[in-house]
Amino acid sequence: VGGRVRVTAEVIDPNTQATVYSVSADGLGAQSVLPSLDSVSKQLRGKLGEALAMVSKQSQPLAQVATPDLNALKAYSLGEKAYNDTDFKSAEALFTEALRIDPHFALARVGLARVFVGEDQPAKVLHEIRAAQTDHARLSSREALYVDAWAANFAQPRQALEKWKLLASVYPDYSPGLSAYAYFLWSNSNDFKAAIPYLEQSVSPKNPHRAIGEYILGALYVEAERYPDALRAFSKSIADGLLHQRTYYASAYAAQRKFSDAMVTMTRGKPTSSTVISSNIVDANLRIAIALDQGEWGQANELRNRIQAQAKARDPRFAARYEITDLSLRALDGTPAKMQISALTNYITDQRKAMASAGLAERTELKFQLALAGYLSAHAGDTDLAKRALAAASAEPSDIPLLDNLRSVAEAEVERAAGQPESALAILKPLVNGSELYVTHVALMDAYAGAHDSAKALEEAQWLSSHRGRAYLENSMQQLLTPFNVAESDIALLNAAEFSLALGNKTDARKSLDAFRHAWPGMTQTGFWAERFQKVEGKL
Question: What sign does the CA torsion over 39, 43, 45, 46 have?
Fold first, then answer.
């Protein structure tokens, strides 16, 4: 007022709504706002009982750790709001404007990096994180640790989990740290059970990003097969402003075979911007999985072909993701082994070339795709091709537990294909720890069958058919394995019927066969599975 500013802060008793403390600071003109905020913050922390000496020791001037320019701060604040609304295009423009005004505004770099994470541009994420590290003095201790954890996620992904855990432990009220640790427990380790408490803690009303966190929490609940909790979390995320992608939400219904509810849920979602490639890939793979889950292989193939054509027009990196998903389904649909091996040979050659020129940010995903190609090659009977793929996927030290898991599954499949099912089982059994990839149990089932242990093979088939939340929403690098997993959850019913019959239990065999008929009614008379179905039915 009259060229002066007054910054005021109050502490309100939530029960009586009475003011407990009120502090203020005056300044002259706009340039006094940030120093006045510093003054108010120190006063308030002192009144709340924190030693003033500690406040002075731990605090840096706001203008130093943020920006001394109010226009840059305004652009940054608007960018945060746009990011919260999942309007990544506007957020990117606003964070970029903040950096144009103040090129050393490290928090704006962090904001821009978060946008690029959402837009699936890992090389740009790494660039912004490293730029923020060069302006380390412009970050508070908390934000500096946050940036260092992000940097480690690319350079030392296994050690990055320890940095995220440290951030979540030292700053338990810092929502970005809690949610990031939870997310990477899920995406790097599939450790959804350990991730859930951290994400639950992060989605408090104080967290402006809670809608995104609530949506991811819903996905973790689906994987944990806590479907009522998942539906509540998804509903809360929509109520708190999440507009886009509802395929995770739909998966909570699809995993329970409530397909009409799943389709209604998806149609209510707002289409994601075409720039958000990772979300579009997740969306497409989940839509393919839901079609497969109803036995609609023709519809699934049509969607796969259309999306793959679009991906090829955009970027080879995106096309490779759809191609490996397509190759995984060829292992299930009766495609002749010779055709599978030919396609896998071309894919592995292309991905090995891509590895040679890939930056640090893309290498882990490429290795995951090569390890999956190795598993599929062994499954198709070409162990030499599988070993070549695995050599490329293991060319560097271990990266993340998720990749280690898949490489071990592929190595076990090489042993099984070479006629050594007991060696395969020796590799696979130690992997089962509650966060193992779904395909681990597919490989276990096949290895037990190869060892003529129908009882153990039946146990694995029953695990596969009953853990449908795991099939849908384990985090397998952009949901690359989701269509394969979901199809296997249905085929496992037919497998269970065969194993039960081998054990002489016709009653259980009939139950499993009827469940398969109900799941894939059109597949019992035509298609690759019809002959197997009719053979079991004839014996019953």
Answer: positive
Give me the pLDDT at residue 360, please: 74
The whole-angstrom separation of Cα 285 and Cα 265 is 16
User: What is each CA distance from 225 to 13, 218, 252, 282, 467, in whole angstroms?
Assistant: 39, 10, 8, 19, 8
- Whether residue 245 contacts residue 283, with contact meaning beta carbons closer than 8 Å, is answered with yes
Q: How many angstroms separate the CA atoms of 115 and 493, rounded? A: 42
Please say whether the beta carbons of 268 and 111 come within 8 A: no
- Residue of 383, 390, 370, 386 whose CA lies nearest to 477: 370
Rg of the chain (C-alpha set): 26
Q: How far apart are CA 420 and CA 436, in angstroms?
A: 22
Q: 235 — alpha (psi -120 to 50), left (phi > 0) or beta?
A: alpha
Q: Could you give the C-alpha distances from 369 to 277, 336, 348, 375, 385, in angstroms and in order?
A: 17, 21, 9, 10, 14
Taking the CA of residue 348 as centre, how many other CA atoms within 13 Å lie in the half-sphere pointing to its CB? 26
What pLDDT is attached to residue 6? 73
What is the structure's pLDDT at 63?
42
Q: Could you tell me how far CA 255 lies from the centroid of its own chain?
A: 17
For residue 256 the two structure tokens come to 């329970």
Tens digit of each residue's pLDDT (9 = 90 or more) over 172-184: 989 989 999 999 9
How many Å apart are CA 284 and CA 367, to the nearest integer?
22
Nearest to 247, CA basis, from 438, 479, 491: 479
pTM comes to: 0.86
**Bridge partners for 9 per DSSP:** 23
